[in-house]
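Repro:
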Amino acid sequence: MKHIILTIILAFAATIIVTAQDNSDANGCPGWLWEVSGNGLTQKSYLFGTCHGDGHTFTKEEVLGIAGVENALKDVKAVLFEGGMNTESAKADSAEIVKEIQKMMKWLKNPGPEYMMPKGTYYKPLFDTIAPFNEVNKFLYYTMKDPEHWKKNPSYWLGRMRFYMAFVWKRGTPVDVVLKKEIGNRGIEAGYVEKADSLSGMLFASLTDTKVIDTLSMKEQAKSLYTIVHYIINNDSVSGWYKQFAEVYLENDTCKMERFLREAGMVAGTETEGPEKEIKYDRNVLWIPVIKKNFAEKPCMLAVGCRHLMGSESL
């Protein structure tokens, strides 16, 4: 798979020139806006890394204040977003999205035998002390409203926590939302690199993918579950991390962002595996034909999450 990804990306890279758009810092670290030209393109297009807004309400002034963005918008005829912004497609593909949601809800209620606790295994002994057990137990019972939560294994609950944080816990205003409103005011077309239903399907697959989790011992899974639950309960801790993420993003420095992510135990390159890799880097490959087609037809800006522009398998 890595050979296929690398081949496709190298082939694409060989056909165009991508340069940082006058926004590198004193150390030569590029920012979030890249200019695309060459190979017969009659007008410049752009790649722009956005921030999806957890814990921060981005303003028009902040978004347009990122080096080069204001001028780039004067050059383009369309801005391409991820499928999550595709409200038009969401309406058109509502039947497919409903199917994915139904699959997700069915999994949440009836996850299957592989997500059940092994006979004779209980949560309390998985924790070294009583405090983390009590915190997880209380959260799953009251917040997740599941009086029989102990029957399901940590792998299931880790998937549920991803669902909870993706669809319930998010807050703030993403750069993408601000940008979409701004281009609407300017009469610039909005386009998308994927359909909303395909993204819904991928999100469901990522929630139920336990390949990486299953490599951990049951005690390690329980520890990971406690860490997430503790973060959710202590809102200030999580909000503080997301606030830092937004602050680093607004510094417009990919090197600082990569350091920040690595310090948080997240990676931005090819070493990412499992659901994280599928959601970030495998989608890059699927987007490339759509990007090439649109860039050939008219000057565009591709506006997608900044992590899609980081690492050796980046756009």
